Amino acid sequence: MRSTFRIRGMLPPGARHELERVVGAAHVHTRPADLAAYAFDAFGASGERRLPDAVVLPATTEEVSRVVRVCARRGLPVVPRGAGTGYAAGAVAWRGGVILNLCRMSRILDLDAERRRLRAQAGAITAAIHRRAATAGLHYPPDPGSATTSTIGGNVACNAAGPHAFRYGTTADFLVGAAVVLGNGEIVQLGEAGDGSPLLPLLAGSEGTLAVITEVEFRLLPAPAARATLAAQFADLEGAFGAVAEISGKGIVPAALEFLDRSAVEAVARTGTVAGPRGVALVLVELEGDEAAVRAESEAAGAALSAAGAARVDRAADAADAARLWEVRKAVSAAVATVMVGKINEDVVVPRDRMAELVARTEAIGTRHELPVVNFGHLGDGNLHVTFLIDPRRPGERARGDAAAADLFDAVLGMGGSLSGEHGVGTTKLAYAERQLGAAGMGLMRRLKQRYDPAGLLNPGIKLPDQLARTESTDGAVSDRAS
What we know:
CATH class of the domain at 108-222: Alpha Beta
Strand order of the largest sheet: 17-14-16-15-19-20-18
Structural class: alpha+beta
């Protein structure tokens, strides 16, 4: 089965030259061969492809403003994009238009250690934020699995979280300021150094639909005085989930509480790039705080893991050893991609005490649709990363993957859960958004969209199921899909 490229109309006459006058000819791309690299984000592993009309790479907030003004005059949709690491097809040009790639805007602008504030351009890499904070003895906790490649603006757009969200919260909990460009090209400074606009708290999770984020400012925390990392191996998931209850029963609030099922551990082992266990489920526990508290909690957590049936519990002796224990967890997303040509990766959330039930249901869904399934994620806050493995080249396999994802969403909503913890809605979950939020919730979102982007040019077709568009599936069939 071949992937289908949806080719929109060419740029209006003269539009390319206007854009080149803003950013330079080297930073405006319109050749199909160049556009093909932007026809998908990480959801592209499912086989989905959509070509934009152009890709523009600005270097400053002022250039972003001028590009958006050109697009506004000509009625061209604007799709803000970072590194394209999202799994919800939220950084793709679903209605044509211009992809605004912010990767050239990658500088960390300022770190004020006394105020514990860090300011960076939207294209700065998340791991660079972590490193810069650490050099000042400070800590930026949000750490999505894509931290080495994802941009900080993209983290805000999807309200990224990561393993340490259990204790510290998500990106939204650290965002204190931003520079943004509205759909008419207006530059607005938000937060502590800007105006009192209510837009700032709406940015986290907005997926580029309300404004183009060009700079961000975060609060930082003091670096923890001590840290302990434990990795426990279980013969089955029942024991792994029992460990959570044991740890919670001791009143321990870990900084991170992660798990990988047997399929995830095996996927990592097959790559041969990471030394780790085989044939087991894995639970990772990280504890942070003052030295005495961490020492006591580490002993208690180790006892809880053993009481839950762990066949083996490893304790990191130092930071390098902790990094080794974390390697398996950090490698899992890339490792899963080597098992099969494609995948459909969802990040659903359910009440924490129903995680075991959800995992059992995902396995049943995979069996029903004849697809391998891999589960891993954040036990601490009930955020499960469910991956259905597919080969989109085989006729009908992408359709089975979509059907499996639909069954997953039905199950999650029936359990009182959420469609997404940190990947966003994008286009992949549009059909289910109103079922979760209700008509009133969707109505509020539409009013906010009208307030900040009345022309509807910022990332149209993303997050809000405003209308149905006839779209061609990767099988070559035509289907109704929210757009």
